[in-house]
Specification:
Two copies of one chain form a homodimer. By secondary structure, the first copy, chain A, is of the alpha+beta class. Chain A is built from twelve helices and ten strands. In chain A, about 45% of the residues lie in helices and about 15% in strands. The first copy, chain A, starts with 11 loop residues before the first strand and ends with a helix. At the A-B interface, helix 8 and helix 12 of A face helix 8 and helix 12 of B.
């Protein structure tokens, strides 16, 4: 199941587990001249195409992929944005696009599982299982006191980053999002814009993830993230209830207008589309909007991202026209 | 035919002819204590219910009408806004609501014909015919040198005000409307907001009318107004062509978004509704919007006016909600 397809969640959109692993005795990618050899070693460990795992994976050499294909993988969160410009990098993607194994990113291996909705346990269990399969055939860089060694020390220890994409329109609208960031930060959980560090929270999408990877177990990370997530869901629901109680007509008007604009506009910038789609997701979540187009809002958003809608070929104006057309026909 | 029903004109919306007449030897209404007697005299002249004309007319005593009924007559332009607050006034309205004869307004008789579209000749011919019928049975205040005498000297002479309601969105958008006002003014034609003097041009609706009533014949007034109207239509069409040539996507986006908002909003102020409806009329006129609701935009505008949608009972917020509901379901 591709995480953004047929995904009608309106608060916890998706869950992601990422494990950073490196080959023992091989320099980290930033200091590695022969990335091809390291890549071959991992490919062999994954069973060379014969294991059950290997049969479920498609290998993509990013050096041989066109920019549009790479851009799409990044939009789907199957590779990191940094890999769009990398060299000597590749990725395994599972048939159901739930799992990807990025090779020669910051670390030799970045194993990722991404699932729709609030699915920390399932995502972690799958990541852990695949990790064990790989570890049967390869020796990871591991230190008894530090744990898994990584290119950047902030990832060492468990090597795990668990994150959830949250959609928090009511907390944003009522300006309570600052409290969320502060309270999560106090528990060692970072809150950022959708595409990781340094990006803003366009469309009211936030990513929360663990900051600490060392001196804690994977289970502890998961449990802490669950606690914070449940607390934020509760805060968002309360903020929605307040909006509904204090200004039901204004709320309905706002989300319905946004839907009307998406269904009729002839030009839509990426940023405006995200904001309007966020409104529609809120409207659907609160039962105000019941109409349903060919695809759900979240898929509209991903499929109308600049790199996908433009195919790397169109200028901004043409993209805005094509985006409006796509959304108009599908939402 | 009610002028605003099934009216798909997008530049010249309607044509109105108004003749001011007074009874000979009776003080003008502002100085008249016994308005009832003057009213009876005119009622008798109109045939007392037996003539063909009288059979086509419904008599409405405005003192006995509830505020909602009067407000609706004003929105339909069958009585003047001033008559909402008057005393001792009444109006005859023809079955097809093309004609009204206001009694004891500023003058004893204000005969009005209102038709959809650009119809100066037809409207004048009808007004002239009715005027003759009335004059067969009553002596008008008339002076050989001044012409028809009226309460306000600016109406004396022909007693005629011919006006057209124009919808000039492109001239407004391109800021050329000032040239229109100046050039029409130079020919003795006034350009004003929709509801006459002192009102702004909400929704890009303007009323043009003759300023001079004395020293010219009715035919001369009509011909001059036709010339100015044709010139303005031409200017508006050219302005639309420029918009279509220079920014077709932005134009389509603007009118389609307005349609989307009208079809989905849950709250609409009167002023916003007019502005959005103006966009939709422009979009229909330019062939950009082809969808058609239960009723045409102009009727939506009239039927969602504050006095009609609120029925004199609702507050502004409730009216905005009811207006959005009415427009959403009908446009």
């Amino acid at each position: 199941m591709i995480w953004y397809k047929n995904n009608d969640n309106d608060i916890v959109i998706s869950t992601r587990i990422r494990l950073a692993r490196n080959l023992d005795g091989v320099p980290f990618p930033n200091a590695l001249s022969d990335k091809a050899a390291a890549t071959e070693k991992i490919k062999a460990a994954l069973g060379g195409g014969n294991s059950a795992l290997a049969k479920d994976l498609d290998f993509i050499d990013l050096d041989k992929s066109d920019p549009e294909h790479k851009a799409r993988l990044a939009e789907e969160h199957l590779i990191s944005p940094q890999m769009l410009k990398g060299k000597g990098q590749s990725v395994y993607v599972s048939k159901d696009r739930t799992m990807s194994i990025m090779l020669m990113e910051e670390d030799h291996i970045r194993l990722q599982v991404i699932m729709a909705g609030n699915a920390l346990d399932e995502a972690y269990d799958l990541a852990d299982k695949i990790d064990s399969v790989i570890e049967e055939n390869v020796t990871y860089a591991f230190d008894e006191s530090f744990g898994y060694l990584t290119a950047c020390p902030t990832n060492a220890g468990t090597g795990m980053r668990a994150s959830l994409m949250l959609h928090l329109p009511a907390l944003t609208l009522t300006k309570n999002i600052k409290n969320v960031v502060a309270s999560a930060g106090g528990m060692g959980i970072a809150v950022r814009g959708l595409y990781g560090e340094g990006t803003s929270a366009e469309g009211n999408f936030y990513q929360i993830s663990n900051q600490v990877t060392m001196g804690v177990t994977e289970k502890e990370i998961i449990e802490k993230l669950k606690t914070v997530t449940d607390r934020i869901i509760d805060m968002e629901k309360k903020a929605r209830a307040v909006l509904e109680k204090n200004s039901p007509n204004e709320l309905a008007d706002k989300v319905c207008r946004s839907y009307g604009i998406l269904k009729y506009a002839r030009k839509l910038s990426s940023s405006e589309a995200k904001s309007l789609i966020s409104d529609v997701m809120l409207g659907r979540g609160m039962g105000i909007i019941k109409e349903k187009g060919k695809i759900l809002p979240m898929e509209c958003m991903i499929m109308s991202a600049p790199s996908i809608i433009g195919g790397g070929k169109l200028g901004a104006d043409e993209r805005d026209i094509k985006r409006a057309e796509f959304i108009r026909e599908n939402i």
